Amino acid sequence: MFVDRKTECDELTNVLEAKGFAFAVLYGRRRIGKTRLVLETIKQRTHVYYLAVEKENLRYFAAAVIQKFPKAKNLKEDWESLLDFLKDNAEVLVIDEFQNLVKEDKTTLSLFQRAIDTNLKNSSLKLIALGSSVSMITSELLQYQSPLYGRRTYTKRITAMSFLNIRGFFPKVSMQELAEIYGFADGIPYYLEKINEPFWVWLENGLRHSSFVKDELDFMLKYEFEDLGTYKTILEAIAMGKTVVSEIKNHARMQRTDLSPYLAKLINTGFIRRELPLTEPVTSKLGRYYIEDQFVAFWFRFIYPNLSNLEEGIYSASIVKKDYPQYMGFVFEKICRQVLIELIKQKRLGYDKVGKWWHKDTEIDAIALNAEKKEILFAECKWQDNVSANQILAQLNEKTSQVRWNNEQRKEKYVIFAKSFKEKNLNKENVLLFDLRDIENLMGSYCIGKRKF
């Protein structure tokens, strides 16, 4: 199943249709759907696809070229000869897991540089390199010191799909179940495709009979890091709600200076993110760390502490389900921020920044700013049914006075998100109520009536 990815497909199609040579680099964590995206986009074009392995890549690559073009069997088995042949015979060359070429032999980068500079740059060949080791791709292909620096004509980091775009995987499930699925799988196509039954039935079978849920996190980490134990301890701390450096450091029993490079690499590879209160300057030291990937958050919340029980076959989905509403509070915040961003993209809301806000023990789930117009939006997200909008609005108003941002002249607006409301007629021009049905309408038609505020 190939769902959405329209923006990425359109961008890649533009690369393919442009005149002359192109060298595109697409990278992102494993399971994100890079290969499927590229193969769907190039399927009507003459192409060679090669999946790089740990060793003997030149020999296997030559075999892939010969399989596609038998007349290449008499070519000399070296990179330059094969690339020179392909520039006249193929429209597209895709090398998947490109980092494996580098692992096997770093001089391959210089060989590709020479081939591009001497033969390929005057051709119409489109060379696409895919990489799942974000750390290696960024260091070996994207850094200034790389022999291939400056040869790229297009670079794209492929990220998880938005919650608003995953309905195509599950056209018939309820919005609540779809959100619960997102809390497990995030917008990772590989995980979404695995869920082929009602979510809780599938999870029960997965916990009882499959090693996938149990082993997947280690598989991901091994692709990026050598010191697995330290990285897992740091991720565990953040997943447990230890979001500031001092808390993470104490949990991991590390010095602050020792911790910094680990945090930086986890951010670079997309496992965590660092956030500031949106009204703070970028130099602020009030940053907090959060798990970026919902599957990682799920794994550390429900799987890692229960590995022994899983091995004994006594840990079930019913145990997860009991604690899931509390876990879904954080997931719903993420969904609601995506809704705000989509409304801004559609110009239904006039803001240019979206984020969180906190001060000491006071937090607001999401805020949005328009600095030019001095407009601020406050949002609260409640994963609950029959929410009293008036009660939440009163609580929110108590917090907003603490937000120091153009207090004397700003224009304030409010959004309250919930699974459902007791009533939705507040008759307040500066307040919007959003329930799961409204979010579903946004997913389906990208239109929510004609009201703009």
How is the secondary structure organized here?
Layout: H1 6-17, E1 22-27, H2 34-42, E2 47-51, H3 57-68, H4 79-89, E3 92-96, H5 99-104, H6 107-118, E4 126-131, H7 134-140, E5 154-157, H8 175-185, H9 189-194, H10 199-209, H11 212-224, H12 228-239, H13 245-252, H14 256-268, E6 272-275, E7 288-291, H15 294-303, H16 307-312, H17 317-345, E8 353-359, E9 362-370, E10 375-382, H18 389-400, E11 411-418, E12 431-434, H19 436-445
Parallel strand pairs: 1-4, 1-5, 2-3, 3-4, 10-11, 11-12
Antiparallel strand pairs: 6-7, 8-9, 9-10
Structure description:
By secondary structure, this protein is α/β, with parallel strands linked by helices. It folds into 3 domains: about 5-155, Rossmann fold, CATH 3.40.50; about 170-330, Winged helix-like DNA-binding domain superfamily/Winged helix DNA-binding domain (Arc Repressor Mutant, subunit A), CATH 1.10.10.10; about 335-445, Trna Endonuclease, Chain: A, domain 1 (3-Layer(aba) Sandwich). It has 19 helices and 12 strands. Strand 9 (about 360-370) and strand 10 (about 375-380) form a beta hairpin. The chain is globular, with a radius of gyration of 25 Å. Residues about 445-453 have low confidence and may be disordered.
